[in-house]
Specification:
Length: about 110
């Protein structure tokens, strides 16, 4: 085998391997993101009604947080994504303690 053929084969192998790693990282990140959405929906569902401060506290207590606080901006991004992905509508009381709840929680019982 000529040296040029060897390097071409090696370069193709490295390229293919890097594409595989890129896809694997994407899959892991997507799975991690979906797990976060499920965690949030489950936390709100179990609590019935819960304030953002309590959600933040529970998030920090969970293993998924890695010690990073949940920002209100991230919370709202996840809330929208949960509605788009799972059809669960997370709403706010807009009075009193401003707690969040799943508006269509009855749909989960069917």
């Amino acid at each position: 085998m000529c040296i040029l053929c060897f390097f071409q084969t090696y370069a193709l192998f490295i390229h293919t391997f890097l594409l595989y790693l890129q896809r694997l990282i994407f899959i892991i990140m997507a799975k991690n993101t979906i797990n976060k959405y499920v965690w949030l929906a489950d936390t709100i569902y179990r609590a019935k009604k819960i304030s953002f401060e309590e959600i933040k506290r529970r998030w920090l207590d969970s293993d998924m947080s890695d010690g990073e606080a949940l920002s209100i901006r991230t919370f709202h991004k996840w809330r929208v994504a949960i509605e788009e992905m799972f059809g669960l509508v997370i709403e706010n009381e807009n009075s009193g303690q401003y707690r969040y709840y799943i508006e269509n929680a009855d749909d989960l019982k069917d």
